């Protein structure tokens, strides 16, 4: 039939087909846009725009309305496209929050202008104003939220550098507003948290910090039960663990409780407390008592070994062989920085410096059912060292001299998740049963026993308890009779981050860094870098000539003995210098213009390839297919005739 059509008819038919296809394409897009407004297709490598199951769970459980105010100063668009893209992502994410919460999360957007009511509201919400120019104008980029009981939570500045934790930060704020009551935390410890006689019984600062954020309930040394309604437990170097308490911790985890444990082969802070602590337990006793729990959690720790790290060791003064004080790397005291932290876990992502003393090593147990993810680790220039070298009179010089690296790194803190079976597979031990008051209590204990966890466990294990001590992360100064504490390490941040993360249960702990939200074009970045270097060189040349011109003017004025009237020759020199400056400024603008032209040309090409390449390929394929059909039809026609 095609061959029976005239050339004009074929052209009209082809043109009509193209028009019809275009109309169909536009109509299809309009229809799908109207019918499927809530549907999303995330094709990014790291699934940047796909909300996690934990986030959706938190949003679905929001009961009372939550108002979120998003502050973004439009002036920030002038800084560059990166911050504008980050702001667009924040808007999209907040919009998803509102949609998935069935409208219980209400979003309002503000552009705070200087001295406007919106700026006053941003300041009252606790947002951080950023200086924008020399006139003192401030810009804002943050969010604040309130609930029905007027609780306020905020992110003062939504830093683009933290883009891969944006979902975590926002859902954490929503979770705090949806659950405003201080979460109860049971604390079971033999550390001198309440202070010692040496420091006038002043509580450790970490305890005060925890009490500001949580309902901390200290458990007595002889405690055998964890209060009902408590879902968070801190175990910090208990020296005596009764059978009943060990079993209680095991069943607490089986019921879904979350644990932050600090277990140390040798707690130096207890030794330094002296007589206040009574008779000190031998090194490794806490690890030994908790061994059944650690094994059921899928990890193990050497009882009497601490980890020395030559790359992280603190420099201290110690007596040498001849009695003189020498500088030595004390391998028991480590300052961990940079590459020692897991940047993909929200608990450790922002840490910069953590100080530990005689920390132990965490090892994944063979055959364990859990996932053990490192949060903090040593370098590979590390060795496990006998802790008995610290128990009596530590000799840093000897420890360093005998150090032999094992050529591997060791976990100092880890997150443990996954399915777990009880350390008491046959039910409570006889010792636990014997401690019950009567047969009825024993029968109830047996009946309530859980042989495996109801849900995947969430535990953070730290192989050092001394990191909580003030001297490891605080610098205390006396300012006009006031005790001023200045943090010098992120020890407290780590502990609070861990507890706050565990508080969110599976919803928050399951969130990790989403990778890079901005995947830069390497060629464009290289071009910008090269042009920027050229620009900087011109800028330096300009500044140098300006300085020389100013010096020349001062010298010429000085030659006249302070007379401000210049000769014609001197004025000509100054005019020539100024003309040279104008030429340089012109060149500087040319460099900038050339930079933008080259980059914009390449960006335009990239956009053309991304937007038009596929349609062009489809069109070429369609034309090729039409030609192929025409040729085949012509051959068929000739064969028939």
Largest sheet: 7 strands, mixed
The helix/strand class is alpha/beta
What is the helix fraction of residues, given as a range?
40-55%
End-to-end CA span:
15 Å
Overall pLDDT, averaged? 82
Q: How many independent structural domains?
A: 4
Shape: extended
Question: What can you see in these coordinates?
Answer:
- Helices cover 42% and strands 19% of the residues.
- The protein folds into four domains: 2-35; 53-177, Glutaredoxin (3-Layer(aba) Sandwich), CATH 3.40.30.10; 181-302 and 357-377 and 408-509, no CATH class; 522-640.
- A seven-stranded mixed beta sheet has the order 8-7-9-10-20-19-17, sandwiched between helices. A four-stranded mixed beta sheet has the order 2-1-5-6, with helices on one face. Strands 13-14-15 form a three-stranded antiparallel beta sheet.
- The longest helix has 73 residues, at 568-640.
- With 641 residues, the chain is an alpha/beta fold.
């Amino acid at each position: 039939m095609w061959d029976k059509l005239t050339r004009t008819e074929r052209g009209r038919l082809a043109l009509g087909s193209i028009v019809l296809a275009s109309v169909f394409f536009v109509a299809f897009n309009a229809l799908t846009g109207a019918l499927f407004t809530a549907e999303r297709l995330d094709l990014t490598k790291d699934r940047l725009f796909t909300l996690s199951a934990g986030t959706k769970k938190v949003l679905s459980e929001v009961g009372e309305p939550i108002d979120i105010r998003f502050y973004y100063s439009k002036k920030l668009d002038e800084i560059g496209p990166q911050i504008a893209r980050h702001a667009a992502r924040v808007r999209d994410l907040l919009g998803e929050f509102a949609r998935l919460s069935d409208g219980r999360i209400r979003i309002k957007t503000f552009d705070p202008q200087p001295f406007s009511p919106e700026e006053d509201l941003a300041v009252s919400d606790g947002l951080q104003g950023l200086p924008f120019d020399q006139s003192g104008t401030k810009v804002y980029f943050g969010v604040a939220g309130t609930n029905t009981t007027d609780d306020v939570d905020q992110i003062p500045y939504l830093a683009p550098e933290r883009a891969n934790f944006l979902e975590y930060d926002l859902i954490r704020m929503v979770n705090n507003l949806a659950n405003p009551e201080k979460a109860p935390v049971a604390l079971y410890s033999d550390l001198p948290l309440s202070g010692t006689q040496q420091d006038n019984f002043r509580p450790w600062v970490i305890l005060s910090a925890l009490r500001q954020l949580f309902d901390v309930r200290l458990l007595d040394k002889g405690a055998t039960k964890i209060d009902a309604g408590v879902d968070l437990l801190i175990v910090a170097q208990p020296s005596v663990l009764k059978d009943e308490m060990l079993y209680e911790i095991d069943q607490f985890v089986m019921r879904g409780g979350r644990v932050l444990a600090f277990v140390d082969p040798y707690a130096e802070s207890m030794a330094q407390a002296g007589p206040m602590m009574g008779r000190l337990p031998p090194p490794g006793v806490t690890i030994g008592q908790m061994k059944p729990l650690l094994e059921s959690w899928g990890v193990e720790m050497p009882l009497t070994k601490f980890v020395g790290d030559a790359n992280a060791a603190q420099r201290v003064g110690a007596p040498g062989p001849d009695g003189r004080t020498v500088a030595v790397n004390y391998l028991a005291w480590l300052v961990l920085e940079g590459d020692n932290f897991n940047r993909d876990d929200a608990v450790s992502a922002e840490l910069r410096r953590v100080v530990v003393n005689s920390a132990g090593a965490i090892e994944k147990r063979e055959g364990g059912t859990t996932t053990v993810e490192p949060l903090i680790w040593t370098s590979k220039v590390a060795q496990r060292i006998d802790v008995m070298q610290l128990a009596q009179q530590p000799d840093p010089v000897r420890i360093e001299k005998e150090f032999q690296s094992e050529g591997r790194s060791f976990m100092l803190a880890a997150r443990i998740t996954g399915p777990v079976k009880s350390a008491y597979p046959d039910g409570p031990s006889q010792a636990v049963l014997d401690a019950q008051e009567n047969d009825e209590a024993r029968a109830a204990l047996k009946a309530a026993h859980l042989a495996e966890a109801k849900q995947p466990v969430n535990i953070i294990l730290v192989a050092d308890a001394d990191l909580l001590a003030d001297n490891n992360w605080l610098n205390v100064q006396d300012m006009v009779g006031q005790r001023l504490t200045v943090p010098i390490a992120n020890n407290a941040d780590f502990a609070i981050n861990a507890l706050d993360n565990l508080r969110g249960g599976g919803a928050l702990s399951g969130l990790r860094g989403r990778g890079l939200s901005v995947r830069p074009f390497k060629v464009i970045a290289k071009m910008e870098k090269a042009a920027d270097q050229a620009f900087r060189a011109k800028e330096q040349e300009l500044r140098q000539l300006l300085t020389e011109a100013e010096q020349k003017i001062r010298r010429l004025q000085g030659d006249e003995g302070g007379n401000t009237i210049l000769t014609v020759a001197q004025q000509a020199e100054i005019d020539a210098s100024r003309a040279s400056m104008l030429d340089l400024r012109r060149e500087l603008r040319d460099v900038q213009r050339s930079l933008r032209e080259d980059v914009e040309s390449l960006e335009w090409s990239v956009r053309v390839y991304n937007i038009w390449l596929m349609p062009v390929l489809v069109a070429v394929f369609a034309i090729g297919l039409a030609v192929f059909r025409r040729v085949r039809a012509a051959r068929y026609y000739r064969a028939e005739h």
